[in-house]
Amino acid sequence: MALIEVLHRRATKLGLLPKVIGKLSIVSNILVLISIGLILCLPLDGQYRRTYISENALLPSQAYSYFRESEWNILRGYRTAIEALIDKPARVRNEVISSWLTDFGMKHAVYDNAADGDTLYGVYNSQRGDGTEAIVLAVPWYNTDNEVNIGGAALGISLSRYFSRWPIWSKNIILVISENPHKAMKSWVDAYHNSLDLTGGSLEAAIVLDFPSKSEYFEFVELYFNGINGELPNLDIVNVAISVIEHEGVKVSLQGLNLSEMYTSSYFNRLKTLLFGVKNSALSGTRKLYGNEAFSGRRIQALTLKACGTEGHDITTFGRIPEAIFRSVNNLLEKFHQSFFFYFLVAPRHFVSIGSYLPSAVCLSISFGISAAHSYINNQYITVPLSDNSSILALIIFFGSIAISFIFLQINETFLQPHLMILAFLLISFLPLTNIPQPLITIQPCLSYRLKSFAFIYISLVLTSLLVMNFALAFGMGLLAFPLTFTKSCSEMITFKSKVINCFYLAISNPFIAIFIFVSIFEDDITNFEVFSDLISSFKYMGNWTWAITCIGWFTTWQMVYIANLDTPRSALDGDTKKNL
Amino acid sequence: MVIISNIPHSSSIKVILLCFIFILGFLVPISYADELVETHIQNKEVEDVVKNNDVKYESKTSFDPSSEIDVTDTSILTSLDNIESVKSTEQVWDTNIKTKDNLYYEFDESLKITPLKSNFLLSSFNFEINSTKYEPGVSSNGFDEYSHYTVFPKSINRIIRQNSVRELHIRFTRGFWDADSWGRIPYDGFKAGGSGVELWSVIEASSKKVAYKKWKYVANTLSGMFCTSLNFVDASKTTYPYKSFIPDYDVPLFDGKNQLFVMRAALANENVCTENLTPLLKLLPTKSRSGISTLLDGHKVFDSYWHSLSIDVKTICEEESLVCYDNLKANVGVVMHVPNTIQRNRNPIPKPVTGEGLRCDTSKYHDAYECFPLPDNFETIFLLSDLFGKKLQGSNLISNNPSSVCVEASKDWKILIESNGEFFGTQSNCFDLTNNDKNDIYFETKNSSSIVRRDNVPLFVSRSIMSNSIGRDGLRTVFRNPTNSAKSVLYFESLPWFMKIYLSTLIVEQAIDTTTGMKFDFDIKDVLSTLKYAAASDRKRPNQIEYEITIPPHSTIILSYQFEKNLLKYSEYPPDANHGFEIESAVVTVKGPTKYQSRTSTLLLVLPTPDFSMPYNVIILTSTIMGLIFGTVFNLLVKRVLTLEDAERIRAVSGPKYKLKKLKERLLSRFGTNKNA
């Protein structure tokens, strides 16, 4: 206490507080730099940890995997038979595959869904189990790139046949063959929990197989595990999967990066894996959907295994991976309970936990809060009471903006014209340069400051409530929206140049323009303008909240700051200044 | 204002006092932490509440020798009449052991084997024991009386006599009965339970309270006897069925003043294993040393797709005389997959079959690398000992009826009994084990899918948990009637108290005609005739739902209702990581024309689990606050409060800076003097 007291006295003597208060905008900017710096620190040695299997019962790869030898002949047999089915309609296909499932005693049913495609699923009732839990082996007929998942389908069926001969299963095994890995899979998962008559208990884990290659060989496995809304599977199952894959002598790639980046340990490779993880998590649901996303939100630990390349390991190796993962999950007597539900992998065997990366999002959210304080305190209107007209008007504008955002949220993806929307927002952003809005709206400087203050405190609250659940989105949104705090109120803008810069900041921090720019630079999977229709459809069908948060959180803030930046007639400004002085 | 540390000498007592207050203050929040987690439960949406759960079964007549008692089991009566000697055989194990020709005990055993579809085989072991006759109400403790049990197990006898148990039923079942392909459950489902352990009993007692006490005693005793967790059966698990499980005959009442109470409890997904089978075999006079029970080996019984152990004890009174006897029926049912079991005998590790062993579909492309597999082979030859790992060891030597083995198979099967390397066959496929040798049963067929029809299942029922949105979940029950007559069904369900049921949400979700696909427009009142509901009471009583529902022919009716999950007290959660709470299966009884009982699968309920680090957090926070308060109060008590100016002045003559200056001066002066010297 004594030390604090001394420091306090020293600070008071030097008059630090008023100085800091005077430079709040700089403090806010420094916090953003700290936030980015914290993220950049994470891949440094000592900042990340080695992954470990928390639940001892999982024992990955401790049992020998037998999916080999003559099972390959059977796999080939199914593969040839499936090749003959490729051009057949889904109904015929499902009928034929159903008869195969009957042959090895799997109960099966078809979930009819005219809109998204029928899903055939089979339930194998385990011999040792009590029938209350199940593991899912999911195979989308067409994968995310719209290729026929021949290898995956053949593997799914031959693995199910192979599993049905084992007496060891304590959890039911469910084989799901859906039309596609997104809408059809998601609708099946929803139906399973609501309306299907043939069920096999609560789903504990799900493995999605993707092997579209015509070849019987593959080089490495891409592992996808990002769920919707920043949700991740328990770190244990990811560790088990990586451990099993590497135990089979196969290399694993995370976040779609190439192998050399995965397996050469350097700061920049780790940073790249981390940043791609953040980006992919933020855009999850909008990017390609691999199938594991469909299980998100129901405490089902889901992974997608994708076989890449055409040479190297044979297809039975790819089959042994789900086999070993299934055997591990089968060992579990309880739910997955590794203490890490939020993490980022920096390498296949290294991760950073939420405790390490969360401070950077917290800094970002605080910096918005400080910006809000800055717009409230550091001007002559601080003396104006909070119950003043301008505050009330600012509140009304706030609710108005939220209402507009809600209207935006309702836009159907078919009505949306992304080109027009981007162009319109660009024009709107640079509107304050002209004199068009002047006769229509006049914004008093006091109102302008209050609006900004309210806007920043609002986005700060949105980010704070989001940052634990969906760190990637909160971080990305905070960074992209941050230029809003650079905009100066009209009373501070004198030259035309500063006005142009102001409008530029407004433009690049507009949610739609910012998302568009970000996606076109950093994301190869999404072709520029499609991102908006993707966002809307994933909001509607996949339960992805990114679009809603963008509209309600970010767009509302932007509207308020924009209104605050509308030009004020100089006369009004002068009069106002005089009055207040 | 500044506080400067300056502890007076007399402050030590104050310090001790403060420490005491601190510790006191620290303890209080911890004791509150427990209560914080306590939940308050309200359930106002209960429509049909049987507030007073006095659903008891009253016998119409008390015990009266003149009243009509329907002794249904005529086989026992006939066995009493035809007293025949045990067929003496030429080969006796030990010539020293002599059996009296006319000595027999009331014990019967038989094994019934039924091939099922897709190469499954059901073996059903039946044992029946009658106790010696006794007069009800006459104490056997008199000095000239003696207790004689013969073959009836003494342990069971004690439980029954001490607690006036008129009926006792125990079920240990595990596995999935595939009614779609296997057909009816053996004994129409009346000898199988839901997954786990089930216990119900009819107890004669003067009041419900006494009955519960006896029930608890029975459960505890059985728990020790069968190594099960039946000791966890308490009021919160015990139900008093209203119509299901009620005996359909007049149960004898020994004391006219008493009443009969039916009580039931189930432990869902309790593991069933060897330690349950061994006590069951110990009840038998043969003790699995001879007769059909020699086959019952834990390794094989529990390595099956479905197995069920059951024990039923009944008190039966003869109408003409005043005597009663206890009847015990034990049954072990096992379903095995024949090819898999034989494969496991050859190689316990399910290695891929060799290239020659592959059976390929020749109608499809196949070569040395490729093979589209054929379904299971229907041509099969096997011996019973292949499945059970043992041969039948002799017959039972104590009853007048030899142990019998019957195979219920179609004409396509060739069934023979093997004894001393010789094979015999009979027309009925039934064999009496009359020698004391090792016997085996030989099965051969070209088409194992040819079976005796068992697929006239009157009703299929399944139940699942719906989780459509955050918050309320639902239970969904699907009734499917595949027959062409309407079925009146009794549905019994007991749910733990932490499921808060909204009975007002009970609806017919869907009703479909399965032949035409037409949807009926049914209201819940159209299908449900009676509904009895006993609302749960926290930690005291489970939810009990019983209703009668009529399922029209060839139709599916889906009922659903919603429920809410309660929070438990934090000490009520399992101490370790768990997979959820087990919900016992619902029991469905088809009332006629042939009675049939089946059970749904059990369910898993995942309750919202609180953050268990909360008590820890509370402790940490309170300690911090206490520490801060202690520090402040301590400072206030032992330090002087001064103005800033005073403090500056004192610091100028006593602060560390001043002392340093003094030291420097002194040193300098010394060195100075030295220099001077």
The CATH homologous superfamily of the largest domain in chain A is called Zn peptidases
Give the neighbour order of strands across the main sheet of chain B: 6-5-4-7-8-3-2-11-14
Q: Give the amount of beta strand of chain A, in percent.
A: 5-15%
Please give the radius of gyration of chain A in angstroms.
Answer: 28 Å
- In CATH, what is the class of the largest domain in chain A? Alpha Beta
Name of the CATH first level of the domain at 460-605 in chain B: Mainly Beta
How would you describe the oligomerization state of the chains in this entry?
heterodimer
Average pLDDT figure of chain A: 88
**Helicity level of chain A, as a percent range?**
40-55%
Unreliable stretches of chain B, pLDDT < 50, 5 or more residues? 1-11, 28-92
Notes on the protein architecture:
The complex is a heterodimer of chains A (581) and B (677). In chain A, 51% of the residues lie in helices and 12% in strands. With 581 residues, chain A is of the alpha/beta class. Chain A folds into 2 domains: 56-348, Zn peptidases (Aminopeptidase); 385-580, no CATH class. In chain A, the strands form 2 sheets. In chain A, strands 2-3-5-4-6-9-7-8 form an 8-stranded mixed beta sheet, with helices on both faces. With 677 residues, chain B is of the alpha+beta class. Among the domains of chain B are: 1-37 and 617-642; 351-450, no CATH class; 460-605, Immunoglobulin-like; 652-677. Helix content of chain B is 23%, strand content 29%. Chain B has helices at residues 12-36, 74-81, 154-162, 179-182, 208-226, 274-282, 298-301, 338-346, 384-388, 524-527, 614-638, 644-654, 656-676, and strands at 2-4, 107-116, 120-130, 165-175, 196-205, 259-268, 306-317, 324-337, 380-383, 392-393, 403-407, 413-419, 422-424, 430-433, 438-445, 460-466, 473-481, 487-495, 499-513, 528-534, 543-551, 555-565, 581-583, 587-590, 596-599, 603-605, 640-642. In chain B, helix 1 (12-36) runs antiparallel to helix 11. Chain B is elongated, with a radius of gyration of 37 Å. Chains A and B meet through helix 4 of A and helix 8 and strand 16 of B. Chain B: It holds the Pfam family Gpi16. Chain B: This is GPI transamidase component GPI16. Chain B: The chain crosses the membrane at residues 616-638. Chain B: InterPro entries: PIG-T (IPR007245).
